[in-house]
Specification:
This protein is mainly beta. The protein has one domain: Nucleic acid-binding proteins (OB fold (Dihydrolipoamide Acetyltransferase, E2P)), CATH 2.40.50. It has no helices and 6 strands. It has a 6-stranded mixed sheet with strand order 1-5-6-4-3-2, with no helix packed on it. This is TRAM domain-containing protein.
């Protein structure tokens, strides 16, 4: 996973700070501010660390009302 990478994720849960949490290959965690469980946004990876990445939503395909 690289900074600037754009990918589709599924928000599985929310973290302690209310951010969405998605898991991608091999259980790697992606933190997505404003993500809600069940959302399937397209995100851009902004910061990559050893076991977690931080991303922003570029397109939200959720079916929220």
């Amino acid at each position: 996973m690289d900074e600037g990478e754009v990918r589709d994720v599924t928000i599985e849960t929310t973290g302690d700070q209310g951010d969405g949490i998605a898991k991608v290959e091999r259980g790697y965690v992606v933190i997505v501010p404003d993500g809600q469980p069940g959302d399937e946004p397209t995100v851009e990876i902004e910061q990559v660390q050893e076991n977690v990445a931080f991303a922003s939503i570029v397109e939200n395909d959720s079916q929220a009302l």
